[in-house]
Every structure is written in structure tokens, then in C-alpha cells.
Amino acid sequence: QVQLVESGGGLVQPGGSLRLSCAGSGFTFSSYVMSWWRQAPGKVRELVARMVSTGGRISYADFVKGRFTISRDNAKNTVYLQMNSLKSEDTAVYYCNAVHPLRTSDQYWGQGTQVTVSS
Q1: Is 54's pLDDT higher than 70?
Q2: Which of 11, 50, 61, 113 could disulfide-link to 35, CB 3.0 to 4.6 Å?
Q3: Mind listing the pLDDT tens digit for each residue in 101-113?
């Protein structure tokens, strides 16, 4: 069956860095658009970064531009999110998403990983 498994979350001080990973299985990873989302308590889930496979086109939310970097290794079926210069407002559960570019109903979510930025 399809699985997306996130890892790498944790507690970090403001200004610190974390690298999240999301390993996919049970689907053709390289064909899917991969993205990271986050949801803070009491807030709606929001898109953080997205990366298509063909051409590697990337987009970021304005609030992470210059601080976060999304990348993927199709050979390892893994997408990453490098997060630098973390702020308290980055505290949230971070989710990995996979969606087929031609069949948007063909979509999967990971279980999420908690990122807490606090001194």
C-alpha cells in the first residue's frame, strides 16, 4: 500500500536548522509532485514548498523563501525540506504530500512530524 513517512522533526532553538525527510513507497514516486505543508495549532494547513519531478520546478511560500529548501532524490523515493534560520512561528506539524500531476484525486499524505522552535 501507499506510504509516506516523515522524519527529522524535533525541538530547535530560534535561528537553528532542521532537515525533514519523507520516504515514499507503493507508488511511482518520480511521477508525482511532492510538497511540504504545515499546520500550526488552531490554523489551517498551509503549503510550504512544492517540487515537480520533470524539470524540477520549485515554488515556495513567501514566508519561507530564502530560509527553506526543498529537494528530492527519486532514486531513494525521498523528498527533503532543509529548514534554516528557524523562527518560533515555524512551529507546526509538517506534512509530506504526493499528488499525481494529471489526476489530482490521486493524492497521499504522510502522518506528519512535529517541529517546535523555542528557546
Answers
A1: no
A2: 50
A3: 999 899 999 999 9
